[in-house]
Amino acid sequence: MYQKQYLLLLVFVCFILSCGKMYDNIDQYTGETVYPGRYDTIIGHIGFERVEIDLMKAGRIPSKNIKLGKAIKTVIAYDNKEVVIDSLVSWVNITGLELSKLYRFTVFTIDDQGNKSVPQEIALIPYTESDLASLVVQPPQVLASQSSAILTWPGGLSSILLDYYGLQYGYTDKNSVRKEGAGAANPRIFAFNLQSGSTVNFDLKYKIIPKVNGTAILDTVELSQTLPIAVPLGSSTFSPVEKASLQANNITNFTVGSVATVENLTCLFTPLPFRICSILHL
């Protein structure tokens, strides 16, 4: 009888010891953090004082279609700031980046316990007002008489620095009347009733998309510039391109006033005796 009780006690003790060792194996995993799912990519795009960052290889999809384990929120950290979005997103738009400098962005998810995912990181330089102020636009070709002026851009306005999409302009004539207009793809500005011998300021507003390293930024911006145009006096002289043709047409005084009324010239260089050369009459 005592032997049976002793045997049962021995079996019970062995069972307790084996269970203890089992829990010892579990204890080594106690306190381990299970990280929430992370975004699978990070790609940046530059805008005007902002950036857009894509976070998923699947593209820009609705938040309801995104499943990343226990992750429930998105956090974007930069410049000692944290932007918390109360959902999972496939892309983000970060605005208010007014400084032309390198911003380092860290993007991660968090779960309902505040656990962070493995982060994605990217460095971007936004296009800012200081970049726009230093942008060089092709100046117009100006042809002016004592009361009028024509501004044209024969080579166009688009370049390796920008894509041009439109133009607005304004100037004040000699009667203090404000004249305004707009230009299309190949703008041509005709200004009239100008004060001879004065300087007329043309206010130009270009609608453009700047480029960075040959790539257009995300946003269309407006670049404002003031272009002063000197309106010549009637006595102002000029150097003619076809001096012989003018002399053959009895024009020997090469001043703005002397050619103001000339509309047609007979050309010297043509074999046809009645061929007419047109001269711009402003």
Q: Can you describe what's shown?
A:
The chain is mainly β. The chain folds into three domains: 43-126, Immunoglobulins (Immunoglobulin-like); 136-230, Immunoglobulin-like (Sandwich); 243-278, no CATH class. It has helices at 2-27, 129-133, 243-248, and strands at 43-47, 50-54, 73-78, 81-85, 91-95, 103-110, 120-124, 141-144, 149-152, 162-172, 178-183, 188-191, 199-212, 215-216, 221-230, 264-266, 276-278. Strands 10, 11, 13, 14 and 15 form a five-stranded antiparallel β-sheet that branches. The protein has a four-stranded antiparallel β-sheet with strand order 4-3-6-7, with no helix packed on it. A three-stranded antiparallel β-sheet has the order 1-2-5, with no helix packed on it. Strand 8 (141-144) and strand 9 (149-152) form a beta hairpin. The longest helix has 26 residues, at 2-27. It is rod-shaped, with a radius of gyration of 38 Å. The chain starts with a helix and ends with a strand.
Please give a quick description of this structure:
This protein has about 280 residues and is mainly β. It folds into three domains: about 45-125, Immunoglobulin-like; about 135-230, Immunoglobulins (Immunoglobulin-like); about 245-280, no CATH class.
